[in-house]
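The aim of this short unit is practical: by the end, you should be able to scan a pair of folded records and say something sensible about each. We start with the first protein, listed as its amino acid sequence and then its structure tokens.
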Amino acid sequence: MAVQVRVPTILRTYTGGAKLVEGTGDTLAALFLDLDSRHSGLRGRLVAGDEGAELHRFVNIYINDEDVRFLGGLDAKLGDGDEVTILPAVAGGGVDALPVPSSRPGHRRI
């Protein structure tokens, strides 16, 4: 069964620059094994552990816009025509990202 996989920019070095690749598998784990056979190293960026038993915590995977963490993780079932989206987790911000208060005379401090 064919599954379309959307690949984020940061992982496109594994897919020869392709942002959309096709794979097969009846589960997410099987799909990642199939993808890794043609795009070596991709699976290692998505799954953790010696056995590859869980998703890396810094990557989010969606099947048809549903978070796989609520669909069974790597055991999530796939059907023909499903769309899998890989999104790297985004973090950041903090105190350094806040505007710097002005100390010039005549300006209000924030």
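Turning to the second protein, read its sequence before its tokens, just as you did above.
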Amino acid sequence: MKLFGYWRSSATYRVRIALALKNLSYDYEPVNLLKGEQRSDAYLDKNPTGLVPTLVADEGALITQSVAIIEYLEEVHPDPSLLSGNAIARANARAIAATLACEAQPFGNVRIQNYLKNERGFDADAMKDWMNRWPGGAMAAVEKMLARTAGDYCVGDVPGLADCVLVPQVYAAKRFGVEIGALSKLNEIYERCSKHPAFVKAHPDNQLDAVKN
């Protein structure tokens, strides 16, 4: 397998966590979003959306969209499972993942940030308000969901799909100053995941294309 991605991309981060939890080996091809490499003809041939990540499966098939990639990995490499438990538990995991992936993360990605700053004239205060209203609001909703589903991790006591999506979103929230300090269960799970070897391996700072400040 080969994964095309960017070290600080939340969506790529999700897939790296899933690969690490499943102990799957893969080649990594960096796509520098800040240099616009995602808009090159060569990359658009692989992923017409111009987004990361893209997975090249062992049989050569191209798979895009992070959650779809994780679900593919779950089907092809079911052990250990990222969607364990009964049907209700699996539905809860998917619901948490979808809330973060659809209602939080897109509002903070590079192309949205650039549009707001460069074309709409958002200053730092306006950007902070934006991030707290949209990603912050979705994360507050997830906090309430976790009250019904969480054990040591988002759904029960084993890390899975929801944790793969939650951890990158919290990482991004901390970068952008989203006010999540009051979200106690979310932060508790994030801290627990941060000590797990698979999450450590997948952390942005531990990637070959990471930029050290």
